[in-house]
């Protein structure tokens, strides 16, 4: 509801300022559902919304012209698994060290920095799935919605809900449950419901569970409670789980997406397909794994995980489970933005043999459906928001064309035109 009200206010503000019409001449317009390109199209955008598309559409008098006649126009990209406020350092440090030394204010500033960089490179929507301290991404999203900063559409989970201990291991009891700065402990259906409500209260647009991080994992009744409570509020549930019985619980409970799922069996992927459940595979490039190692003790060794990721992505595509792109990027590399690092994942999708059209669909329409914004974003269609990117090569011929994005439009405003 809050998002609806804000959207309404934005629309009123735009009308008050006088709605600008933009006519984009595109060499090709990519249909991410059909996996086809329509050549030599004109796209009319008024008040942030796509009003007409076609070869011969009438251009309204006074429309501002944007010449992309040598470019391919695609929907803005979406990453369904980000942690904008978190940075991991090296494998030598325990996971807790990534957040214990930082304030909420600093986390929010980092989140805004990364979100702005992502938009510049064509990510027009993201879903941030926790590890943001005390709901800092709610404020980053609010700052973008209120026009304080340019950024993507942000759906955020608030605190990660997990069985006792969050993603911490063997912390001495004398230290106390300090991880609750970053997580909500929930070990019964009632505790899960309370944790879900707490996140909803503070502005979550998705509920994130971590269910398999300890010798114990969340049970069916607990995950079902999360699904029931979240769905009643119109919010999806995403579950961090690698495989095994904990993944089976998540599948049986009817969650909306499995995050990671590195060890999912073919049978489990089949069940997910039958239920229309998304896989957000966070398919780390091997070069990234070699830098982050075990991610402070929560990932398998790179030599094990690297090949496993490629194999699981290949199997998931072959079986036909619905996939939404999610990077889980939390590292930094000098001279590169977080978006640069996110686009490294395209190499993994290529290596796994996923065709460009399917990869692009995972990064646009599929992700928008998972984020429950598919009626407004994720495709180039009349009536949808003008979240657009363009590049001088066909992304359906080679998905690495997405690295060459040189035009970004967000809600009808040109964010960037020309190389970075
Ligand atoms: Zn993650």
Rg, rounded, reads 21 Å
- The helical percent reads 25-40%
Oligomeric composition of the shown chains: single chain
* Structural class designation: alpha/beta
CATH level 3 topology of the largest domain = TIM Barrel
**Major sheet, described briefly?**
7 strands, mixed
- Architecture per CATH nomenclature, i.e. the level-2 architecture of the largest domain: Alpha-Beta Barrel
Strand segment count = 16
Note the total helix count.
14
- Strand order, sheet with most strands: 3-2-1-4-14-15-16
Structural summary, described in words:
- The protein has 420 residues and is of the alpha/beta class.
- The protein has two domains: 114 residues, Roll (Urease, subunit C, domain 1); 267 residues, TIM Barrel (Alpha-Beta Barrel), CATH 3.20.20.140.
- It is 34% helix and 23% strand.
- A seven-stranded mixed beta sheet has the order 3-2-1-4-14-15-16, with no helix packed on it. It has a four-stranded parallel beta sheet with strand order 10-11-12-13. A three-stranded parallel beta sheet has the order 5-6-7.
- β2 and β3 form a beta hairpin.
- The longest helix is centred in the last third of the chain and has 18 residues.
- It is globular and about 70 Å long.
- The relative contact order is 0.16.
- The N terminus is likely disordered.
- The structure holds zinc ion.
- Zinc ion binds next to loops.
């Amino acid at each position: 509801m809050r998002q609806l009200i804000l959207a309404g206010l934005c629309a009123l503000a735009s009308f008050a300022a006088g709605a600008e019409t933009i006519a984009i001449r595109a060499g090709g317009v990519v249909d991410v559902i059909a996996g086809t390109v329509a050549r030599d199209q004109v796209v009319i955008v008024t008040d942030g919304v796509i009003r007409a598309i076609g070869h011969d559409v009438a251009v309204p008098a006074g429309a501002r012209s944007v010449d992309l006649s040598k470019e391919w126009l695609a929907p803005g990209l979406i990453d369904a698994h980000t942690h904008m406020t978190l940075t991991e350092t090296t494998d030598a440090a325990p996971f807790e060290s990534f957040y214990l030394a930082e304030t909420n204010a600093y986390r929010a500033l980092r989140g805004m920095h990364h979100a702005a960089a992502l938009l510049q490179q064509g990510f027009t929507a993201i879903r941030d799935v926790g590890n943001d301290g005390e709901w800092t991404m709610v404020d980053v999203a609010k700052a973008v919605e209120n026009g304080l900063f340019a950024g993507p559409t942000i759906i955020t989970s608030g605190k990660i809900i997990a069985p006792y201990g969050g993603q911490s291991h063997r912390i001495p009891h004398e230290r106390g449950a300090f991880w609750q700065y970053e997580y909500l402990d929930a070990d019964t259906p009632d505790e899960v419901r309370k944790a879900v409500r707490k996140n909803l209260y503070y502005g979550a647009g998705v509920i994130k569970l971590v269910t398999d991080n300890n010798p114990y994992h969340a049970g069916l009744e607990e995950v079902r409670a999360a699904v029931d409570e979240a769905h009643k509020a119109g919010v999806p549930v995403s579950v961090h789980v690698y495989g095994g019985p904990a993944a089976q619980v998540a599948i049986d409970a009817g969650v909306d997406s499995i995050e990671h799922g590195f060890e999912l069996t073919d049978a489990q992927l089949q069940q997910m397909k039958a239920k229309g459940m998304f896989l957000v595979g966070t398919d780390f490039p091997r070069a990234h794994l070699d830098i982050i190692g075990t991610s402070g003790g929560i990932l398998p060794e790179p030599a094990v995980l690297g090949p496993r990721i490629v194999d699981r992505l290949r199997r998931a595509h072959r079986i036909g489970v619905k996939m939404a792109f999610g990077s889980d990027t939390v590292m930094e590399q000098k001279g590169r933005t977080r978006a640069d690092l996110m686009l490294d994942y395209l190499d993994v999708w290529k290596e796994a043999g996923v065709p460009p059209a399917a990869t692009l669909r995972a990064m646009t329409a599929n992700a928008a459906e998972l984020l429950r914004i598919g009626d407004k974003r994720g495709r180039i269609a009349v009536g949808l928001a003008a979240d657009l990117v363009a590049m001088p090569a066909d992304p359906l011929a080679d998905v690495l064309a997405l690295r060459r994005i040189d035009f970004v439009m967000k809600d009808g405003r040109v964010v960037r035109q020309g190389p970075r």
